[in-house]
Amino acid sequence: MGSKTLVRIAPWDSCIPDMACAAVCPEVFELDEKAGRAVIRREYRLGGPGEGEVPGELAACVEAAAGVCPLRIIKVGRAGG
Ligand code: SF4
After folding, report:
1. Per-domain residue ranges for the chain?
2. Is any atom of ligand 1 closer than 6 Å to the C-beta of 71?
3. Does the C-beta of 54 come closer than 6 Å to ligand 1?
4. Is 0.85 surpassed by the pTM of this model?
5. Dihedral pair phi/psi, residue 75, rounded to 5°
6. What atom in ligand 1 is closest to the CA of residue 65?
7. In CATH terms, is domain 4-74 a member of 3.30.70.20?
8. Strand partners, 6
């Protein structure tokens, strides 16, 4: 299936970063040491460092990350609808 899942860290400036997201979903999230915040890995990035789109098979991964973020700033949505 070609469905895509949108993921955003928003507001990105709020990220601590405790890296709980990367602990459960390292395929998508990583630490940007310079910025001191979590970012979407470059291969999945859309616009800014906290915005991306992942293939359907990583939907559960980003959902899990959203579930463990202590600030609840990881937003997940279906692309194109
Ligand atoms: S879990 Fe949330 S607060 Fe923690 S690093 Fe990831 S986005 Fe930032």
Report:
1. 4-74
2. yes
3. no
4. yes
5. -110, 130
6. 1
7. yes
8. 53, 77
